[in-house]
Amino acid sequence: MTRILTSLAIVVVTSCFAGSALAETKYTLSSDNTKLQFVGTKPNGKHEGGFKAIAGTVTLDGDVTTAKFDVSVETESLFSDDPKLTAHLKSPDFFAIKEYPKITFVSTKVAKEGNTVQITGDLTMLGKTKSVTIPANIVMEGNTMKLASSFTIDRTEWGMTYGKGKIDDRVALTLSISASK
Fold first, then answer.
1. CATH code of residue 117
2. Fewest beta carbons within 10 Å, which of 36, 61, 95, 98?
3. Does a structural domain hold residue 7?
4. pLDDT reported for residue 19
């Protein structure tokens, strides 16, 4: 009898895990459905910009707290509201795009906090990896996952120190995703 119950338990547990794997949904991120923009500020003004080449995946297994984010941004695709600034941002003073052609983000934890989620993960930029937490609103509409987030990072934590004291260290970022299954 014990052997039968043990076998039954193994079948039930295996079925539960198999069912979870079948429920996993993958959303492919691209420049068509994902936008990453920034605003850099200084005492006498601001500049806006973003990145045009974004790729990655978001994998969900039911509840939003199971989400796994794996995102890559091509630094060459950086743009700003001023062509001269765009060239400077691509230089070794800022993003050093020839040496560091990608920025990556890989989530390590997603937690609910009220009506938002906190997405914690490793952000790698300029060869340095730092843990960041991104507050986001995620809404599931049929086959589409929509994410909206506004947050700031301190650029100096990744060694981007050009213009310290003349350019604010904190950079505002906006991320929006509208990806279908």
1. 2.40.128.110
2. 98
3. no
4. 37
Range of the domain at 106: 24-180
Task: Please say whether the dihedral angle defined by the alpha carbons of residues 155, 161, 164 and 166, taken in this order, is positive or negative.
Answer: negative
Question: What's the total number of domains in the chain?
Answer: 1
Q: Contact 36/50 with Cβ under 8 angstroms?
A: yes
Look at residues 50, 25, 45, 56 and name the one whose alpha carbon lies nearest to residue 173.
50
Distance CA 65, CA 1 (A): 39
Interval 85-138: pLDDT, tens: 999 999 999 999 999 999 999 999 999 998 899 999 999 999 999 999 999 999
CA distance 33 to 177: 6
List the structure tokens of 51: 């990145």
Residue 72 CA: distances (Å) to CA of 3, 38, 51, 105, 118? 49, 16, 11, 7, 19
pTM of the model: 0.85
> What local confidence, expressed as pLDDT, does residue 37 receive?
98
Identify the segments of the chain with pLDDT beneath 50.
Answer: 1-22
For 156, half-sphere exposure in the C-beta direction (CA atoms, 13 angstrom radius) is: 9
